[in-house]
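**User:** My hope is that you can spare some time for a protein that puzzles me. As I understand it, each token names a local backbone shape. I would be glad if you read both lines and explained how they fit together. The protein I mean follows directly.
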Amino acid sequence: MLKIYENEEIIAQEIAKEMKVQLQTKNNPVFCLASGSTPQKSYFQFAQNLVDRPLLDKLKIVSLDEWVGIPRHAKGSCYQMLEQDLFSLININEKQIEFFNGEAEDLKSECQRIDQFILNNPITFSLMGVGMNGHIGLNEPGSTVEDQSRVVPLSETTKEVAQKYFDESIELTDGITLGLKQIIESSRVIVVITGEHKARMVKQLFEEPEAKLPAQELLGYQHIDFFLDQSAAKELNK
């Protein structure tokens, strides 16, 4: 379902409420969470409203994606961004976090490790953003709905946009990511898109199926909602 809100502050409040409900109602809550600027305000709201520590202690968080070759705690890594924007705010134990190691010597085994974790701990809630080229996680254009965890060559668009997360220009070539299949199989998924700079991509996503954006694979499911602010939705036919 498509839901359009006045601004990203309201979206953040709604997502934070849902995260809390998910935490309260699931016996084994497993969250898969996107890093980056889009969900930042949602994580802050969630942390501000969280008061029940025992509920938090049962939470597990599984990695969505990571840059290959970037150290876990380096500024700009997906782990570092989530650590800054969420983990540090809720004081979650590292043992509760299962994250891709982008520096692993055997990346295929790293994918298998995360796949096995998800088999043993099915994802109950996923919060996704959408890249400028329609990617979900690091599932770039050309990804299929059957894909599971894997290493992917990064598109030029992703390489360019990713530079904003680093203090200096850095060479990125590949990413390691969950597949679209694993995201779709989450019990509940929210995809959030905000900002006028994504309005053209949003129009393609909802009105131009021939664009073949990875995010289009998530359309049409009852358990998947798209949350947009008015700026992102401005080019949609009303």
